[in-house]
From TrEMBL:
Protein name: Putative acetyltransferase
Enzyme Commission number, as recorded: 2.3.1.-
Pfam family, one: Acetyltransf_1
Superkingdom per UniProt: Bacteria
Domain N-acetyltransferase: 1-148
InterPro entries linked to this entry: Acyl_CoA_acyltransferase, GNAT_dom
An example Gene Ontology molecular-function term: acyltransferase activity, transferring groups other than amino-acyl groups
This protein's UniProt keywords: Acyltransferase, Transferase
PROSITE patterns, per database record: GNAT
Length: 167
């Protein structure tokens, strides 16, 4: 399994993976819209020996109190059912975190299972005085610090980009 940054030719395979992995097309439409709006900061794929995309992690900008702080949100994260429970999701996350750190991003937020994302180093965002603008998400809203000073003097409301409001 090769973990790498997505390239243009991966788009159709990513779309197919998202459509077969989620109960609706919402995540596929989200990624399509992020791509069209130039809001896809980073996409990381897991491919098999034939180049078929079997895992995907998307990262897009978020704002803190309406301002760009060089933070991104992780969503969606998906691994094909045929290869789950092999650590591919974690590998996608770590590759994304490493790349974003190299690019100078300060932090990553995610909405998801605290037990799963906690294994990758994410912490409860509320403990850092951060909350998500999406209702009912505080128990699953988490953050990962990339820059040493990412949380210095920081508190408030994290907002995902407009395409997330259509979910």
């Amino acid at each position: 399994m090769l973990i790498r940054t997505e390239i243009g030719i991966d788009a159709a395979s990513i779309d197919a993976l998202l459509r077969r992995s989620f109960p609706t097309s919402a995540e596929a439409e989200l990624v399509k819209q992020l791509r069209e709006d130039g809001l896809l900061t980073l996409g990381v794929v897991a491919t098999d020996d034939e180049g078929q995309v079997l895992g995907y992690a998307a990262f897009s900008p978020v704002t803190l109190n309406g301002e760009d702080q060089q933070w991104v949100g992780l969503a969606p994260l998906v691994v094909d059912e045929s290869v789950r429970k092999q650590g591919i999701g974690s590998r996608l996350i770590y590759e994304g975190l490493d790349t974003l750190n190299e690019f100078g991003y300060a932090a990553v937020v995610v909405l998801g299972d605290p037990a799963y994302y906690g294994r990758c180093g994410f912490k409860t965002a509320a403990d850092c005085q951060l909350r998500c603008h999406l209702e009912g998400t505080q128990q699953v809203f988490q953050v990962y610090k990339l820059a040493d000073d990412a949380f210095k003097g920081i508190a408030g409301n994290i907002e995902y980009s407009a395409p997330f409001n259509r979910l």
